[in-house]
């Protein structure tokens, strides 16, 4: 992996990644030269026991621009610069112009509940320069690079003592609130371990202390033995509809042997995950022969510098559709009670995905 760091005219950082050497003649661009003035803060929710972020400047963020004003495409007209420069590179990562957290946040307002500066980081990860692509259409080597990029960003962000957890994710499709269609994801780096990964880590730690083995490691072995819901597997990686799926087409991807973070993946595991990632996204898009929306999130260990043998790096996909025409809305029992109700058995939806034929080596039209 090759990388090249640049500083944007407005002071934000940009890192370019490639499978090949990157020319040093590139100049960073930005839609605006005005420094980002974000100063988000956190307020404590006393009934839920969790922090809520407030970032009112995000009201002005980019929303559904026409293709000719795509801010994530490489700049073609210097008079109208985008976020990315022209040049030969595969993946780009830059500081979000409209962050929900900022390492420089300070002086939170006083309220009747506790407040703190939202001292975290928010990055945008542009998967490819091709605005018409998707994860399913990228070459395996490109996906392998993306996994390495997520590891590099986790390492760099997690090295900051303010950061305790790094979460790479992708929102795909207007159904999950996407406002820019260019293939991209985000990385949020939190000053604490957020509630969902904290709960999963607590369950994994409790299991590890009792069994001296990983909870997800054993669940994967049980899924393999049951052999009903597996979508992809090789010697190093697996993708499956979990037996406990909360969403009808939910899929998990993981290395078979536990590693706590992207940085611990060996080349064979990373390549296996690339194949699993391409298989799942190809099957999603092939299910109804149209782009398939989802939220994809990668869960790993906290970045607190401690060993976390209980943590097992993996991705979870949350697709919003329950049938080809019907969305699964989160309503009373999900949002109010926190208990999901699934209208379809995981085994049924796994069979639908298993029936979608894919070819990892064939180019995908975009």
UniProtKB/TrEMBL annotation:
Galactose-1-phosphate uridyl transferase N-terminal domain sequence ranges: 38-194
InterPro entries: GalP_UDPtransf1, GalP_UDPtransf1_His-AS, GalP_Utransf_C, GalP_Utransf_N, HIT-like_sf
Domain Galactose-1-phosphate uridyl transferase C-terminal: 203-357
Cofactor: Zn(2+)
Any one GO molecular-function label of the UniProt entry: UDP-glucose:hexose-1-phosphate uridylyltransferase activity
Family assignment from sequence similarity: Belongs to the galactose-1-phosphate uridylyltransferase type 1 family.
Protein name: Galactose-1-phosphate uridylyltransferase
Species name: Nostoc cycadae WK-1
């Amino acid at each position: 992996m090759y990388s090249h760091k640049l500083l944007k005219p407005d002071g934000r950082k940009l890192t370019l990644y490639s499978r090949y050497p990157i020319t040093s003649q590139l100049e960073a661009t930005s839609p605006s030269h005005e420094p980002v003035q974000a100063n988000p803060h956190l307020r404590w929710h006393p009934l839920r026991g969790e922090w809520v972020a407030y970032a009112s400047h995000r009201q002005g963020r980019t929303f559904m621009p026409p293709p000719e004003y795509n801010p994530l495409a490489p700049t073609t007209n210097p008079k109208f610069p985008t976020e990315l420069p022209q040049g030969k590179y595969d993946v780009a990562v830059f500081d979000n112009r409209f962050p929900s957290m900022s390492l420089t946040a300070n002086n939170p307002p006083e309220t009747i509940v506790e407040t703190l500066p939202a001292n975290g980081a928010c990055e945008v990860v542009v998967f490819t320069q091709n605005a018409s692509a998707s994860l399913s259409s990228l070459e395996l080597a490109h996906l392998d690079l993306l996994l390495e990029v997520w590891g590099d960003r986790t390492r760099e962000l997690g090295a900051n003592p303010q950061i305790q957890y790094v979460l790479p994710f992708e929102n795909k499709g207007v159904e999950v609130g996407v406002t820019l269609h260019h293939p991209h994801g985000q990385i949020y780096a939190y000053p604490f371990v957020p509630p969902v990964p904290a709960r999963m880590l607590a369950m994994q730690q409790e299991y590890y202390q009792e069994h001296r083995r990983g909870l997800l490691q054993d669940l994967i072995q049980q899924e393999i033995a049951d052999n009903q819901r597996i979508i992809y597997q090789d010697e190093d990686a697996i993708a499956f509809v979990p037996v406990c799926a909360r969403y009808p087409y939910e899929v998990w991807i993981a290395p078979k042997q536990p590693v706590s973070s992207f940085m611990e993946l060996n080349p064979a595991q990373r390549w296996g995950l690339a194949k699993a990632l391409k298989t799942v996204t190809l099957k999603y898009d092939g299910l109804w022969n149209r782009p398939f929306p989802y939220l994809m999130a990668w869960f790993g260990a906290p970045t607190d510098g401690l060993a976390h043998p209980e943590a097992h790096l993996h991705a979870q996909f949350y697709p919003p559709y329950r049938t080809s025409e019907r969305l699964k809305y989160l309503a009373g029992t999900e949002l109010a009670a926190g208990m999901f109700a699934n209208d379809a058995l995981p085994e049924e939806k796994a069979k639908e995905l298993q029936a979608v034929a894919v070819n990892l080596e064939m180019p995908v039209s975009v």
